[in-house]
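REVIEWER CHECKLIST
Item 1: Sequence provided? yes
Item 2: Single chain? yes
Item 3: Sequence as submitted:
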Amino acid sequence: MANIKTKFTVIEGNSAGYWLLVAVLGLLSLGGFWSSYMMFLHGHYMTGMTNAIPWGFPIVMAVYLIGLSAGSLVLSALSSVFGRTEFKPLARISALLAALLLIGALMCIILDWGRPDRILVPFYSMNPRSMFSLNGMLYSTYIGICFVYLWAMFNHKEKLVKLLGFTAVFWAVLVHSGTGAIFGFVGARELYHSPLLPPSFIAAALSSGTALMILVLYATFKFTGRQLDDGLIRRLGLYLAVFIAVVAYLVFIENVTRSYWPGNYAVQKFLLLFGNKYSLIFWIGMIGCGLLFPFIILANPATGKSIGWILVASALVVIGVLAERYIIVIPGQVMPMEMFPGYHIAGPFQDGRMIDYYLSPMEILFGAGITAFVFFLYALSLKFFEMTPDKAAGESGN
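Item 4: Structure as written out by the authors:
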């Protein structure tokens, strides 16, 4: 069995490489905050968002980071909930990253509002029929669970760690089900409305969270000179392959079901065949990078046991799930709502028209900056808190 008496320490963080990394992440973070300030000061006309498409890349990033967070937290609970003691050395890093990723996601939402001073409104104006209102409570409670879970691990309160591990998994499922329901419960937009979106969001969160943790753990142990058993990476790669298969099944069922209904023929043709860049993002980004290519890599015995190829597959999944989030958020707004079936709608506000969306440099800087800020906090946390184990050995380790 794995050694459960793992020693956790801070990293030295005195090398030029470490401070260069912190500096680069810090500069990117400042760029993200600058872009959000410019959008706040001058309005969203500086972006690709319009009155017809009010949810742009900041919301794509918010949904994406929420999924990464939920997947990371579930991995953190592998040892406490599922009894996989070989993953115990990785639990602190996973829980920390889960909290930081959700903080980054909430920053994307709040800074995109245009009125960040109204952050408390969802809490004292609760509406149980609004997923936005319910998710405000779910997200804030989730962050609290992450930090209490970390506190319990720091203080070696094993019974509390196990209880909080169960709570964390349950709450992560609620959080991402609620995020999927924001879109799935919108009956007016054909590309949103689907009862499969909540479970599909959870499956994609598990695949993207696992892929991100593989990359982060490998990089953290590699560049701090600590031992990470290849067997753990291979086992995570096996989990990743399973999660990818589940995502692929749900995506297939959702699109087949939507295509079966005659009223959805137009939107499905747009998404799958004639949507120009959106169809390319769907097939190359979401299906190719997110599902097909990484699954082939992980399922092939020649590449599935290679650490290098597992890292490639993980990077593809991270990119592919971002494409999936983009495909969920944007095309559903591009397609006009059919408010009066059988009638043509015309008006001065582009009613009934298909309005395209172009990703602006300001939004790219915003998304990159918020993501950099998450890893800026992660890098500093490793230096000031005992997060990193001296080694992480597999079941055969000592």
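Item 5: Key structural point noted by reviewer: Residues 84 and 110 are 37 Å apart (CA to CA).
Item 6: Recommendation: ____
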